[in-house]
Amino acid sequence: MTMTINEYMNQWPEERLRELLAVASTETVETALNKQDRDIGDLAVLLSPAAKPYLEAMAQEAQRLTRWHFGRTMSLYAPIYISNLCAADCVYCGFAARSGSREKRITLDKAGIRSECEALAKMGFSNVLLLTGEAPKVVTPDYIAEAVSIARDFFTSVSVEVYAVDENEYRQFVEAGLEGVTLYMETYHRPTFKEVHLLGGKANYDYRLEAMDRASAAGVRKINIGALLGLYEWPLEVLWTALHARYLQKHCWRSSIGLSFPRLLHTPERYHVHYPVNDADLVQIMLALRLFLPEVGFNLSTRERPEFRDKLIPLGPTHMSAGSSTQPGGYATYMRGQADERTNYREVLEQFEIEDFRPVAEVVQSIRDAGYDPVWKDYDRAFDCR
Length: 386
Ligand code: SF4
Fold this sequence. Notes:
Elements: H1 5-10, H2 14-22, H3 26-34, H4 40-46, H5 55-70, E1 73-81, H6 110-123, E2 127-131, H7 141-152, E3 157-161, H8 167-175, E4 180-182, H9 190-196, H10 205-209, H11 211-217, E5 222-225, H12 234-251, E6 256-260, H13 279-292, E7 297-300, H14 306-312, E8 319-321, H15 360-369, E9 373-375
Parallel strand pairs: 1-2, 1-8, 1-9, 2-3, 3-4, 4-5, 5-6, 6-7, 7-8
Iron/sulfur cluster binds at residues 86, 88, 90, 93, 95-96, 133-134, 202.
């Protein structure tokens, strides 16, 4: 009988992962570096402090593997926030029902979604990610399917980052033209998960953990996971994320797997980051994961600073967002810098503050300067033979 993701993850409790981390030494790091196929024990030592002196060697290997699997390309995508309404209460999030934010809550109507799509399509984007908070009574699965269908009029590839839904609802999205689902577990550590998710469907750990199995079964072609770095100890979160990815590779083999590395930098006043992840940590995470999962796509968002994103380009990312807005209407209606009070972007609630404000053309130039080709369209449905 097939093992469920819950059963699989239950085999990897915290204590077992801590034992893997504890055996890290110069010798085990060198052994892990020199291997072809690395197991979870190798990943643990590469994530340990013992691997810090080997970051340069890890970077060289990560670069070699990324180029081997993906060439010198960087796919570009942009997020479109279609609603910032949220009935959930995740203590680290600006959209949370009880975050204390007073800015406007907005759900774009069809014309609004169309305007946002139009604005991004004009910039050249072909891949977009539609995002919402968790307000299933207003932002219903039907509404999301409709948004996907509108976006498909403009873009080759449409993905969503929305609340976890049932398999038949993921199927409805796929029928509307959906290609990908991004859903972060946020934290795999159950006690922390409970502490930070106070209200709403998101508080259901098991339902969320099983979401990608349902998405893949419904025909979603690209599934993208991650942990929100900063909620719990990052070596453990990264190991759990890697295990989840390996499980999905085996059990959801019809879908391609991607990873993101969101880290908590700005949070609402009521929440302080207990386990901060610094730049060097994030580099180590990305390199170690590339060595463990050489064929998995890595996403790098505008949450990170421009100069840091530029440094990371050759080290493992395969997809970058650019020119992003994290508020509904942020491309066509409530634009950053708008002078008109009626359309002042500050009135509209953003989920998190972005760090890389560069116009798309500048990001594209940085990618070229690093010796990579920016790719606007990385997938052609004509090749989908499912
Ligand atoms: S993380 Fe998502 S579900 Fe949680 S409060 Fe923010 S928008 Fe809502």
